[in-house]
Amino acid sequence: MNEVLKTKFSIGNTVTYSIVIGVLIVTFCFVYNIYKANNFNKFQRSERIIGISEFKRDNKVKYSDKESYEIISDEYNDAMFYETIKTKENTPYRVTCMVKTENIEKQEENKAIGAQIATDSSTERSVAISGTSDWQKIEFIFNSKNRTEINIGFRLGGNAGLCKGKAWFSDFTIEEGTAENNNEWKFACFIFKTTDVNINGKEIKISAAEQDIENITDTIERFSKTCKSLSNSKMQAECDIYTVDTPITSLSYDEKFGYYVSAEDIEDQIKNKISENDYDHIFIVAKLGDEKHKDDIEINDWIGLGSMDYYGIGFSNIRLPNEAKSYVYKYDSRVNIFPEEVFLHEFLHSLERNSQEYGYQVPALHDYEKYGYKDEMLIGQRDWYDDYMNKNIKDENGNYIGLPSEIYKLKPAKSSNFKYSTFMEDVFVQPTNIFESVKELIENISTKFHSAVQGE
Questions:
Q1: 139 closest CA partner among 311, 314, 315
Q2: Is the same domain home to 336 and 402?
């Protein structure tokens, strides 16, 4: 009888043990699936408008065998997953990912808004995807400049504005390239023959004359030589000139400057040439007024605008004058022997900004009068540019200031920097199985615990 009871008790224990194990397994799987859906690995989440967007891990909509990272914005917002990465100074980096979008609508029409890769503290970004699209690869190339760590974000929105819809990001990579370290700058100059825009309900069509195009072509050749001579051979300049038949059909607006041509306005016309070549700076030449339409497009006292960028490449506007007989871009020994001044000035704005972003202290390009220089007949501000480019301006303490000689070799990052690149395998790492997930979970808890303790 006792042996029968023992047998029954043993069987009962086994059944109970099996049930407990089964319950634990089911519970663990349930908890693990919840964890997977809400685990963002080393990514942090941020929103411009807190609480508007939803962040998820998606096991159904995915590009590969890994769960994708999903951002859902039912209302207009700017939201992103981001990870802080360690970088070497003055080093090119390329980040890629696969992205899929669904019904992405922009609050305002701007090509810089949508699903993209970007930094969280600047205008640096990849292309931005809107609407509905299947999985596609996008890339983001940037130079670390003087930064030793950067937040890289996978973003639905943008520095330029808000959007709504859904975006999935997957299969992240990052590689470290090699800076060129030479002083040979390559310029692209796009001369647009026609501006055909609608301003305040009025259709405006303005065309550049053949003489305008000839003058610009001659001036660009002078600009290339002037870069070398005024810098005392600290830099070399080569410029490709493109005459564009497709008109400019949209303009951007700024309260200070009025209407101008942004990179987004003419991206479709220039992107193929830019992608086929490794340019360091871009000039856009356009006519935005003439005798007939001189008051139709608001231009607030500028002939050139600089310090903009096209995916990290310097980008400048050069405006053709309204008057047909203007000598702004035409050499004449009696009127103007420095017609390339506007091109040089706007390019120097990019070098001014680059110097500041690399941590150099440089005088403001517009402060020539502060240091005793003048805008003179025939030569404009040539003497100022000469000393500015050679760090030969004397400040009130007797120190010489201006552009550092190093800046001529600190050029934008581009595809050619990745001919021999190194993939950073320890960045954007994701668990591939349950054991790695559990390990990462423990590490995340430990990191947050230590952060909390240090915070106290």
A1: 311
A2: yes
